[in-house]
Structure formats: structure tokens, C-alpha cells
Amino acid sequence: MKSVELFAGAGGLGLGLCLAGFEPQAVIEWDKWACDTIRENKSCGYPLVKDWSIFEGDARLFDYSSIDSEVDLISGGPPCQPFSLGGKHKAFKDRRDMFPIAVDAVRKLSPRAFIFENVKGITRSSFANYFQYIILQLSYPEIVRNEDEDWLHHLSRLECQKTSGKVNGLTYNVVARLLNAADYGVPQHRERVFIVGFRNDQNQEWSFPKKTHSLDGLLDQQWISKKYWDRHGISSKNRPDITVRYATRIKKLSQASLFETSHKPWRTVRDAIHDLPNPLLNKADNAFYHDHNFQPGAKAYPGHTGSPLDFPAKTLKAGDHGVPGGENMLVGLDGSVRYFTIRESARLQTFPDGYKFHGSWTETMRQLGNAVPVVLARVVGKSVADQLLRTKESEIKQKISRVAS
């Protein structure tokens, strides 16, 4: 199935969607370093990106008429700084707000579906009206804002269209949900909003995929069955004491009759990096893994702490002025801290080991902090792809039936 990727970054969303069965006809990104990352992997012949056609530049300048085939999906992560908790919170007043560009792309290409991703901050109460405005613009992309019209008046016109119940022209059924990447097998707590829309003529019934992993699943394997520690070969004396924090929850799990969680355990930092050599040691071994080098300077202080080894990592962040540090550090069992290496960070974002990043440590961590976890992108993308394939199959059967009759 054909797709177009907007605001591609280092390629996390695009890689996951390729694994879900989509083939990008154009990959659009303005940041030079992110484009260099994709180009480097293309030049190395990395399978998922070797055929990507990269447009380095402002998405507003891309010529959509160059796409000469029907597009099944438009995807992308519009820059999150206007809505990020770590940003300046300007929303529609921020010149980096690219949602109008995403709506424009949907209007021009009329894809069968779209997937857009953004930070949790977009759902905060202060942005409620503007978030609703985004949803309605994507629902009715042909109802365009006039040049002399403010966004609130445009919102009113869109609301009138919504409440009228009329379906005129290009229309999408749009849903949005906050997903935690840890609930889908990513070794990181990363809450992101996904906005998914299907063109109205697709006649589909769809909902977000159910979560597959949980905290209860992890606590069960750590403190009831002990499978987690056995899997990693960790003796009882080397296990961190977290039972106080989760004592009540663990007690309930242990008392449940024939307890067996329906979810897999959350994946932890240890799960993600256990087979990587210590970056402080074995430098010869580290060379086997691209970008697995120790980065000095990590410090912990109140409000600036790292990720524990035996839980999903905190959300990796990019930061407005470089890497914040606290969220991008690992806390050892002895309380010591160090920065995650680039390769460890890539694993926490579920990029494959063969995928290389271009730029300095700080620049690469910015790319990783802005990325969509590949595994989460694949889960959501596969669910959308399956629905589109079912719709195509139904259309083909209907055509055959009409010919036969």
C-alpha cells in the first residue's frame, strides 16, 4: 500500500509503517541531520529505507502533484514543541505548528486513511479548543479557513458542519487516543496522542489496538513467579527492593486464585540492553555495536533522576536547549548514574541495531527524543493496514458480484 510521510524525523514512524506493509512514495523532512540519518541508512542499503524518496525542505513547499498514484495513507508527527510540556506552549500561535500543513496534505491527496502523532500536552485543558479544531479540520479538510478569518470563527463553521450530520465532499471519520508505548511492548514510558482517520467512503469500523503489556504482568514475573529474574540470571541478593512501592498491588496479585495476567510484562531497560557490553568497559566489544560509546557528564539531583534498570525507561526527551539529562540517564543498582548511549537509546525507541544515526551525541539524542518508537508505529500501522485491506477485499467482492449478476 502506498503512503506519504510528513515530518519524518529520523524515521521511527516510517520504519514501523513499512513493517506494517506501507511503501512511502515521498518522505518529507526539513531537518538536515535527520535527513542525513535516513540518507546514511539508504547508502548502506538498509532494507526498509533503501527505496525512500527524501524531500529535504519545508513541507509547505512540497509539490503533491508529483505523487502520481493513489495514496492509501498519509502519516507524520507534526512538530510537538507548540504543545510539549517542555516547550513554550504557544499552540496555534507557534510558527512551528504544522497541523495546518498536515490538513493541507490530506486535502490535496485524499488518502484512504491517515495517522498523525503528537505529544500528550496537546490534550491539556488549555489546548482543548484547539485540539478539537485540529480534529474537525482533519474531519472536513475541504472546509478551508478564509484568509481574513480567525481560527475560532473557522472552528464554529466546522462545528456547524459536524452537527448538521451532512456528508459533503471529502470527509473523514477521525478518532484520537493517548497511548503509552510501554503497553505495546516498548521498554519506555512514552505517552503520545495518535490521531487516526478513515475516508468516509471506506465504510469501516475500527478502534485502536488493545494493549498487550502491563505493569501487573511485570510485577507477576518479578515478584510472584520470579521468571523475570531467572530469565536474566539475577540472584535474590542482587534484586532491587521495590516491594514497598508496589506492596499492595503485589499482595493482590499473589492472593488472586490461579492468577494469570492476560498481558505480557512491560519490557524493562534491562530487557532492552542486557546483551550490550558495558560502555565503561570492553571498548573492543563496544565497537561491534554502532554508536555504543560512553558519554560523560551525567549528574543526578532532586527532580533530575534517571531511569531504573528493572522498569520501562522514562520518556526519552530532545529538549529545547539540548538533552535535559535526567530522563536520558540510567540509574545503576548502586545509585550511580550515566547517560544512555546512542545505541541503548535507539533500543529504548525500538530501532533495529542495524539502523545508524548521523550527527553528534547531542544531535542524535535530539533525533531519538523526537522519534516515534518503531514497535508502536508498527502496531498502530498494522491495525490500520488490516482495516484498509479488508475494505479493499470487500470492494473487490462487490465488483465480482455485480459482474456475475
Give a brief description.
This protein has 405 residues and is an alpha/beta fold.
Fold and architecture overview:
It is a single chain. The chain is α/β, with parallel strands linked by helices and 405 residues long. Among the domains are: 239 residues, Rossmann fold; 40 residues, no CATH class. The strands form 3 sheets. It has a 7-stranded mixed sheet, sandwiched between helices. A 3-stranded mixed sheet has the order 10-11-12, with no helix packed on it. Strands 8-9 form a two-stranded parallel sheet. The longest helix has 31 residues. The protein has 13 helices and 12 strands.
pLDDT averaged residue by residue: 88
Number of DSSP strands? Answer: 12
Uncertain stretches: 82-94
- The helix content is 25-40%
* Number of helices, where a helix is a run of at least 4 consecutive DSSP H or I residues: 13
**Widest beta sheet: strand line-up:** 3-2-1-4-5-7-6
Strand content: 5-15%
The biggest beta sheet reads: 7 strands, mixed
Tell me the name of the CATH class of the domain at 2-211 and 372-400.
Alpha Beta
Give the H and E element order: EHEHEEHEHHEEEHHHEHHEEEHHH
Structural class designation = alpha/beta
Distance between the termini: 30 Å
CATH homologous superfamily name of the domain at 2-211 and 372-400?
Answer: Vaccinia Virus protein VP39
Basic shape:
globular
What integer value in Å does the Rg equal? 23 Å
CATH topology of the domain at 2-211 and 372-400, what is it called?
Rossmann fold
CATH architecture name of the domain at 2-211 and 372-400? 3-Layer(aba) Sandwich
